[in-house]
Write a structure and sequence with these properties.
Elements lengths: L18 H7 L7 H21 L16 H7 E8 L6 E11 L3
Antiparallel strand pairs: 1-2
């Protein structure tokens, strides 16, 4: 009898990024576009292998190609401001007003 999946397992949201991936997507990355692509593709292969080793049913790229989902949310929602964390400069959102959809 084969393996029976009661419900599929997957990562929800972004897979946590190791430092070398954070360096690749940083604003001050100095490599060429080709170096970036090659390095990110290798990173994605490792993210996929990690999920396969964990036995997940639905494998993703970990959303590592995306630099940030924060900007997307800020573009779609009124009431948030993009800012940077004082401690380390990472982007973050601050709620400054009642949240609502941005007008088209």
């Amino acid at each position: 009898m084969g393996h029976r999946v009661l419900f599929p397992t997957s990562v929800v949201g972004s897979l946590p990024r190791p430092d070398y991936v954070k360096d690749l997507i940083a604003d001050d990355y100095v490599g060429s576009a080709e170096d970036y692509r090659r390095s990110m593709e290798a990173a994605i292969r490792s993210a996929v292998a990690l999920q396969e080793c964990a036995g997940l049913d639905v494998i993703t790229d970990g959303e590592w190609w995306r630099t940030s989902s924060i900007g997307v949310i800020a573009e779609l929602a009124h009431g948030v401001e993009l800012s940077r964390k004082p401690a380390d400069g990472r982007p973050w959102m601050v709620v400054v007003d009642k949240l609502s959809p941005q007008p088209p």
